[in-house]
């Protein structure tokens, strides 16, 4: 075959592709059925449940591996925060102009969104190793779609889902490794959650859809799911206590769920039974594992099976819409037991204790962190080059990588910051 024939064949293959980047694949109701048997669907559920298994018993400010890759990716939100300060809502001093201030604030969100879209792909590229930069287009698509709709000034669970696609794709591309599972939720997702709450409050965003997040709160769903998973092993309080004011005050910075309860308390008026009936009813259940199971089924039915939400999601190479392997089962979370990460940390502590007892004068050697044990069939393997993340990442606290948000000069915005 001649060189000209080879070039013609390659051009024909390229032209036959439906898209060179992530594309919307759910265009009619029947496509939801195809989505639920797709590789992307199975990877997403497996990732959600693997995180749930891994983070049980861990606190946001606890010790878990935080790699340089996690720190670089979390730094994206620092840059997005600068854009918020550059596009503040226009505040007014008299109550008569309240409606006008809301409209002007919305316009400020549109300016912020345009600025974000101009810069987000470069931010993603700067956070990735050079060998992974060919994933920038797809990763940037998922990340840029996770901050809300600039036309309608709204945010909902579909935007949150786009961020889950971003996180899952980082593992599929081997930019993050299995040792990063806990930090992907407790550092990156927690940082994302804090940032989008800031957008929602400052820019007076509306909830997407008519039901909000199904009476859990107005916008989010996943922090409730992973927050319950955190509490599924050796929780310091029971489900019946999760709405208590003293529990919220003490634990809101340590558990995603209690942070959610605190945020609902700060942003809604009246008793929980009135404004958040679903959240109120969860407190009556007997165990965290049962709550997690119910929330996961609710998420799969009320979010992942809804055409209105899924039609906005795009699919690419890392999150393919193609049918999953025949016979593949949806991964399940393993809750109520010590997670592999916690077990590994306990084993290391026991080894250090034994070493000190044998020779108290010798300082124990610090062992490099091993890879988190693979849970179920979920794997971060993807046909790609090797990741640059070294095997020797250390365990550190969330406070080492989180950044405290600076407050705008206006008093109203400072009050919002204190609540967040």
Explain what this protein looks like in three dimensions.
The protein has 420 residues and is mainly alpha-helical. The chain is built from 18 helices and 6 strands. The protein has a two-stranded antiparallel ribbon. A two-stranded antiparallel sheet has the order 2-6. The chain has a two-stranded parallel ribbon with strand order 3-4. Helix 3 packs parallel to helix 10. The longest helix has 30 residues. It is globular. The C terminus is likely disordered.
Question: Layout of SSEs?
Answer:
Blueprint lengths: L2 H14 L6 E2 L6 H5 L3 H17 L7 E3 L2 H7 L1 H11 L11 H30 L8 H9 L9 E2 L1 H16 L8 H22 L3 E2 L14 H9 L14 H7 L4 H12 L4 H4 L1 H6 L5 H15 L4 H4 L3 E2 L24 H19 L36 E3 L13 H9 L1
Parallel strand pairs: 3-4
Antiparallel strand pairs: 1-5, 2-6
Which tags fit this structure?
disordered C terminus, mainly alpha, 51% helix, two-stranded antiparallel sheet, 6 strands, 18 helices
Strand runs, count: 6
Largest sheet: 2 strands, antiparallel
Strand content: under 5%
Query: Poorly predicted ranges (pLDDT <50, ≥5 residues)?
Result: 13-19, 367-377, 379-420
Overall shape: it is globular
What is the radius of gyration?
A: 23 Å
**Strand order across the largest sheet:** 1-5
* Element string (H = helix, E = strand): HEHHEHHHHEHHEHHHHHHHEHEH
Share in helix? 40-55%
- Figure out the total of helices: 18
Averaged pLDDT, please?
81
Helix/strand class: mainly alpha
| Distance between the first and last residues' Cα | 65 Å
């Amino acid at each position: 075959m001649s060189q000209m024939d080879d070039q013609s064949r390659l051009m024909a293959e390229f032209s036959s592709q439906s898209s060179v980047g992530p594309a919307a694949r759910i265009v009619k109701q029947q496509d939801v059925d195809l989505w639920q048997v797709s590789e992307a669907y199975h990877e997403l559920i497996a990732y959600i449940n693997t995180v749930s298994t891994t983070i049980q018993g861990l606190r946001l400010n606890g010790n878990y591996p935080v790699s340089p890759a996690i720190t670089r990716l979390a730094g994206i939100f620092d840059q997005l925060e600068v854009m918020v300060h550059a596009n503040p809502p226009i505040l007014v001093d008299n109550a008569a102009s309240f409606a006008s201030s809301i409209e002007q604030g919305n316009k400020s969100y549109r300016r912020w969104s345009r600025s974000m879209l101009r810069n987000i792909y470069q931010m993603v590229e700067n956070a990735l190793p050079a060998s992974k930069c060919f994933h920038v287009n797809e990763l940037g698509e998922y990340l840029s779609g996770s901050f809300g709709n600039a036309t309608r000034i709204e945010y909902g669970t579909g935007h949150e889902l786009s961020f889950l696609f971003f996180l899952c794709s980082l593992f599929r591309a081997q930019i993050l490794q299995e040792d990063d599972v806990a930090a992907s939720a407790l550092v990156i997702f927690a940082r994302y959650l804090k940032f989008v709450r800031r957008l929602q409050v400052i820019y007076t965003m509306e909830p997407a859809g008519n039901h909000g997040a199904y009476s859990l709160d107005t916008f989010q769903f996943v922090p409730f799911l992973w927050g319950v998973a955190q509490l599924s092993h050796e929780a310091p309080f029971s489900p019946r206590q999760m709405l208590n004011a003293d529990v919220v005050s003490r634990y809101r910075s340590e558990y995603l769920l209690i942070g959610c309860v605190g945020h609902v308390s700060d942003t809604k008026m009246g008793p929980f039974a009135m404004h958040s009936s679903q959240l109120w009813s969860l407190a009556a259940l007997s165990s965290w594992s049962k709550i997690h199971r119910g929330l996961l089924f609710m998420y799969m039915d009320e979010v992942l099976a809804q055409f209105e939400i899924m039609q906005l999601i795009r699919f690419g190479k890392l999150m393919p819409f193609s049918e999953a392997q025949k016979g593949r089962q949806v991964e399940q979370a393993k809750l109520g037991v010590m997670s592999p990460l916690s077990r590994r940390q306990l084993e290391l502590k026991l080894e250090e204790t034994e070493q000190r007892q044998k020779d108290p004068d010798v300082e124990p050697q610090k062992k490099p962190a091993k890879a988190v044990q693979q849970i179920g069939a979920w794997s971060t393997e993807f046909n790609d080059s090797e990741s640059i993340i070294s095997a020797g990442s250390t365990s550190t606290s969330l406070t080492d990588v989180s950044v405290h948000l600076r407050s705008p000069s206006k008093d109203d915005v400072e009050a919002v910051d204190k609540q967040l």
